[in-house]
Design a protein that fits this description.
This protein has 947 residues and is of the alpha/beta class. It has 19 helices and 38 strands. α6 packs parallel to α7 and α17 packs antiparallel against α18. The longest helix is centred in the middle third of the chain and has 34 residues.
Length: 947
């Protein structure tokens, strides 16, 4: 049987000669690992030979198995895989399970202060004279089974073995020397249960597991359990789309307990029963009001099956198929269900119900029950949830405690409205940090679990989530900002870590702007702010840099680089370019451009390239190891649910016609006779564009003549059909100091003329120092580019690098500070210089956060100069969160919320916009000033000039 086999393997490993190791830790830190010896350091690897690992065969089987993993890893790290017979000794064991560890404690040689009796704590300590004949040993002692496992894995990870060495083919470097500094290092987790949820796993994860392991079985889960523990996680909600970890393979759940992984079942699967088991064995409707006896019998079997295996039982009930249980809030019914479930737990276990860990997930409409006043016994963990899009819906009151504590269920993947997102990683660690810091600040620290979907595309955010869960307070904003770089170094070494981190953060930011599944041909403007071109250029830059780096990286890093960096960049760039091409095809067809057909050809080519990239993943990557893992459909969405297969976007064919046409920046319609370009001003856009295009197959010939010599009209390279983009700019040294309208006459070979007028404002302005200048159009300002950030009442401001769609976010801290009266709290000042007096619109872009305190919305206030502040509410008019609430759907789809405030300036020139802090949790990202209708776009204008 597998349990016997695994235990036997661990026992054999315990008797074998082995090794341990460690790596980049800061010089001078206790038990730091480095390549150079220091006074009192312990030689894990010296002259290519590793230390020996000793452990007690009476220790937990999971500990023996983890020690065997560490031995294998260390043998790969060592230049000479065979430790010498007289090699230095690493002793690993659990307090109370290892006689050697207990003896060292009793002798006073091993200090377990802060470790003994502490959940999952461990100590790593260099011990002098641990026994006769041994001058020095490295000792790793855990307070319990997982403490020891974490201590062993922590050391080997710091030595240079990535937790993703199997799951992402991260190569293990070979080392000639590795030393552990003298001293004592103690770690223990802040969040008790830290886990992942494998969900929405068809077709990718399930398909891969089927071809790799023959199904989602104990062999598959062995890999998941090991990874979870290497990441210092301890909890799992197993895959549940038509699956049951208990019923599909009876060896899987006992194996979890042996490894040391705590099992639960998802938010809507009570008392250890997978939902699919009701489909298999249930009798009657999934309705407690009509079928309570059968449901109680069903749940009772789940608690019996759990046995002594370490578990956290989900209580409560949702409707059949993860849907609402009833219309409205049937509080009394759900209270009865929970009471009956707890009775079952007590009867089956023979212990008081509070002796068995339980969780009530306040997911979707279940939170309505909580809001309506429903409560569960205090020993039950209240698991708050995000909105499935990374925005936490509710947190407890600061300082409020309960024996069962509070937790958070978070999402990196989702199936539901407004659109599934399952394909690639779209989760910024900066946003995860901001939201989970709120959870920590408000005391939700008993259980953190994240829906990782198929797991494989979510390596980076998964490790970040679990790393932060281990010690949220250590994950400062500075450490978060450097996390991707450190993670890249752990997979690929330090030489190229900065560039790899830039690529990882870069593609994640672009994907987070709008999930790929939500992008279509109309997402990015083709006529305003050069938006589509800017987006294409951003992706092209990442593609180029990834290609360059792939060519210079060592060959043994190629598989890891392909799957972690190169493929997601190439696939995402291709996907975005595909839809932009589809959008151009539609626009060009409407305009009558023959180039519409070329764009249709691009759509076909890019669609074929998507398939080719997947083929490379399936066939070329790691010898086919990850076949099927990229089988998730992602092209052809028309509503929230995924298409059954990728569907090429529809295109329009244009029949050749005689003549030519003109299109200009700022409008989608063809210019018939005359049109104005958007304004040109000294501190505004560098240029404007005119497209001269062909309607047919005949060669395109035309001339362009500007009415003034200082207005420059430059031709870009002509397309094969003659289409040409003209760039219009101003020689400001020669231009007159006044407003002028300058015609540009376009004349075709057929004698037809079209006049495009450049609207030029050359009037000189003495602008305010360090102010953002309004000049010829909308003015954008990134939130972190404030002129002042004033603190008040103990509240200050924190810039969160990388958060949001364009640059960063700025939020107030501490998050637990009470709300401020408008105009009396901390504030951010922005210096602006306006072209003219009068009304203007200020759009404030914020993160799509929710009012996690359960109030009537998150607020801030705005004032211009010394005018009274105007209150803005992120959630004005919203009655609920979730599918069907249009403002919420737009916010999560756009990954931002936007409030528009009308302000009035009494004069042109210098002014100050002040953003006042009112409620905690508001994250400012961007400000845009405009007059009249703001030209339509997704991202808005580029940031303005700051003098």
């Amino acid at each position: 049987m597998i349990r016997t086999a695994v235990s036997a393997l661990a026992l054999a490993a315990a008797l074998a000669v082995g090794v341990a190791i460690a790596a980049p830790a800061r010089a001078g830190e206790p038990a730091a690992v480095s390549a150079t010896p220091a006074a009192g350091a312990f030689p894990l690897i010296a002259a290519g030979r590793s230390a020996r690992i000793e452990t007690d065969v009476t220790d937990w089987p999971g500990v023996l198995r983890a020690v065997n993993d560490v031995r294998g890893d260390l043998s790969k790290l060592s230049a000479d895989a065979r430790p010498a017979q007289d090699a230095p000794v690493v002793i690993i064991g659990t307090i109370g399970k290892s006689a050697v560890i207990d003896a060292l404690i009793a002798s006073g040689k091993l200090d377990v202060t802060g470790v003994k009796g502490q959940w999952e704590a461990f100590v790593q300590q260099v011990v002098e004279n641990p026994r006769p004949g041994v001058a020095r040993a490295l000792v790793i002692a855990g307070a319990d089974k997982r403490g020891t496992i974490f201590g062993a894995y922590d050391l080997i990870e710091r030595a240079g073995v990535s937790p993703w060495s199997w799951w992402a083919d991260a190569p293990i470097p070979v080392k000639d020397q590795a030393y552990v500094a003298a001293g004592r290092r103690v770690l223990k987790p802040a969040v008790k249960y830290r886990g992942i949820f494998l969900n929405d796993e068809d077709p990718a994860l399930s398909g891969w597991a089927q071809q790799r392991f023959g199904g989602v079985n104990h062999e598959f889960y062995a890999k998941v359990f090991e990874l979870t523990l290497r990441l210092k996680g301890n909890f799992l909600w197993p895959a549940m789309w038509g699956k049951s970890i208990y019923d599909d393979d009876p060896l899987s759940a006992p194996l979890a307990d042996e490894y040391g992984v705590v099992l639960g079942t998802s938010h809507h699967e009570p008392l250890g029963r997978a939902h699919v088991e009701w489909e298999r064995y249930g009798q009657g409707p999934w309705d407690y009001g009509k079928n309570p006896d059968k449901l109680r019998d069903f749940w009772r079997e789940g608690v019996k099956r759990m046995g002594a295996n370490e578990s956290v039982l989900t209580v409560g009930m949702r409707g059949d198929g993860d849907e609402p249980m009833t219309q409205g809030t049937a509080t009394k019914l759900l209270e009865t269900i929970v009471a009956d479930q707890r009775k079952i737990i007590g009867e089956v276990t023979g212990k008081p119900p509070e002796s068995t860990p339980q969780v009530w997930a306040l997911y979707k409409e279940v939170q309505d029950y909580y809001d309506a006043g429903m409560r569960v016994p205090d020993d039950v963990t209240l698991l708050f949830s995000d909105d499935n899009w990374g925005d936490i819906r509710r947190l407890p009151e600061p300082g409020k405690t309960r024996p069962g504590g509070y937790g958070v269920y978070y999402h990196f993947d989702y199936v539901g409205g407004p659109r599934n997102y399952k394909w690639l990683n779209t989760n910024q660690v900066s946003r995860t940090w901001e939201q989970m810091k709120l959870a920590r600040d408000y005391g939700a620290d008993r259980l953190w679990i994240v829906n990782v979907g198929d797991l494989k595309p979510m390596e980076l955010p998964t490790e970040f989530f679990l790393d932060m869960a281990w010690d949220p307070d250590a994950m400062t904003v500075g450490k978060m900002a450097g996390f991707t770089r450190d993670w890249a170094a752990a997979q690929f070494g330090s030489e190229h870590a900065d560039e790899i981190a830039a690529l990882l953060d870069g593609y994640t930011r672009l994907n987070a702007r709008r999930k790929p599944e939500l992008i279509d041909g109309s997402t990015f403007s083709l006529v305003n702010f050069r938006e589509a071109e800017r987006v294409e250029a951003e992706w092209a830059d990442l593609e180029r840099r990834a290609d360059v780096l792939r060519r210079v990286l060592p060959k043994d890093q190629d598989d890891a680089f392909f799957q972690l960096v190169w493929f997601p960049i190439q696939a995402s760039a291709n996907h975005t370019r595909l839809y932009i091409a589809a959008g151009r095809n539609a626009l060009y067809a409407k305009q009558g451009r023959i180039a519409a057909n070329a764009e249709a050809g691009k759509v076909q080519a890019l669609f074929a390239r998507d398939a080719e990239l997947v083929r490379q993943w399936d066939e070329d990557l790691a010898g086919g190891k990850w076949r099927k893992m990229m089988s998730q459909t992602h092209i052809g969405y028309t509503y929230w649910q995924q298409p059954p297969s990728n569907v090429i976007p529809a295109t329009v064919a244009v029949k050749p016609a005689a003549g030519w046409g003109v299109a200009v920046e700022g409008r989608a319609d063809v210019v018939a006779d005359a049109a104005d370009l958007p304004p040109l001003a000294r501190d505004g856009a560098a240029g404007r564009w005119i497209d001269v295009f062909n309607r047919g197959a005949a060669p395109l010939a035309f001339s362009a003549k500007a009415g003034e010599p200082w207005l420059k009209v430059a031709s870009g390279p002509a397309a094969a059909n003659g289409d040409t983009r003209l760039e219009v700019s101003v020689d400001w040294k020669a231009a007159p100091a006044s407003a002028r309208r300058v015609p540009i006459v376009l004349t075709g070979a057929d004698g037809k003329t079209v006049t495009v007028t450049a609207v030029v404002d050359g009037a000189p302005r003495k602008t305010a120092k360090a102010a953002f200048v309004e000049a010829g159009g909308p003015l954008a300002i990134e939130a972190e580019h404030h002129a002042a950030a004033a603190s008040a009442g103990g509240v200050s401001w924190t810039t969160i690098p990388g958060l949001g769609r364009t640059l960063s976010g700025v939020t107030s801290s501490p998050s637990t500070a009470p709300s401020s009266a408008p105009g009396q709290g901390a504030f951010l000042d922005y210096a602006i210089d306006l072209e003219q007096a009068g009304d203007f619109d200020l759009r404030v872009f914020t993160a799509p956060s929710l009012d996690f305190r359960g109030g009537s919305g998150l607020r801030y206030a705005v004032s211009l100069d010394d005018a009274p502040p105007v209150i803005a509410n992120l959630h004005e008019g919203e009655t609920r969160t979730g599918e069907g609430q249009k403002s919420w759907e737009k916010a999560v789809a756009d990954n931002t919320r936007v409030q528009t405030i009308r302000l009035t300036a009494a004069k042109a020139g210098a002014h100050r916009i002040r953003l006042w802090r009112v409620d905690p949790g508001v994250v400012f990202e961007r400000l845009v000033i405009s007059r009249g209708e703001l030209p339509a776009s997704y991202l808005g204008p580029v940031e303005g000039v700051r003098r």
